Amino acid sequence: MTRKVTIRDLAEAAGVSVTTVSQILNGKGERFSLDTRRRVHQLQEEMGYVPDFNARNLIMKSAQTIGVLVPNLGNPFFSMFIRGVQETSRERHFIPLIFGANHDEKLESYYLEELIKRAVDGLIIASASITGEAIDNILKKNGIPYLLIDQNGGPSLDRVQINDAQGGQLAADHLLALGHQRIVVLMPDQPTQNLQIRVAGFKRRLAEHHVELAESAVIHSPMTKLGGYQATTAVMAQHPTAVFAINDETALGLMRGLHEQGVRVPQDISVLGYDDIDLDEYVVPKLTTIHQPVVTMGQQATGLLINRIKDQRQAAQLVDLPVNLQERESTAPLK
Fold first, then answer.
1. Can you tell me the distance from the alpha carbon of 267 to that of 254, in angstroms, rounded to the nearest whole number?
2. For 17-31, 44-58, 92-106, 316-330, which range has the lowest pLDDT when averaged over its residues?
3. Is the CB of residue 246 less than 8 Å from the CB of residue 185?
4. pLDDT digits over 101-132, tens only?
């Protein structure tokens, strides 16, 4: 069986001590000659030496890893968010360990505990079901820095904040400008704080224009394509001229359901989403939506968490990110 190349093998080949090789490979070899450093790096490549990460952790007292827990890896919103996490992690020389809990609270708790057992340096949690009790009992007691995402609230010291109130207002402004007053809202029955703020902004702007959103016009469905699809009949029972879906996944599922019932978008009904995921430009018609910078959210969240890992005593960090209307083809003036 092939034996793994060790740091001792590399040191012997280079004619230097193990300590010298270790310092050079860890970026602390400035006191050695340029020729020595070049020789060590060249031999590392030729011999295929990969540093022992566990040994490095003992020396550095850091695994240089962050745990990322999201509800659903298949959701394009979280795929885009993770892309941002990966970009900043690489720039800051950290490795993200990413898990999707499939909206399963037991699985979520399992991953959370396993990440802590594996001594991750910090956690990014994008979950509607994480409880304050879990944070107190698991994260705070273990002194692990963490950051909550996509909730605009909770006990997270550092925050990446999206202006959801403005997002809801922009959605209302767009539909009102097109002449719509008979509007349905699609949202989950237990919305997180950021979704509550979003819908409150939407309702407030309608009220300012003397348009009342009846209780029956708020239809509850899971925030998935299937949830939007299954809500089609309930939506049509309200006879709306426009629908504001709380996220794009729900909007896309609804559009499929409307198509199957022979309802044309936007000729018969306008559909407006929220998030601006990649799929929006690849459906027919292209989805009009409220854009939030999802990749940037991942980048900023990772940057704030790594800052906190490096200095847990620093002041609270807050990043505000803007939203804007992305007008495409799924909304049209009321006939």
1. 15
2. 44-58
3. yes
4. 777 778 877 888 788 877 789 999 887 666 66
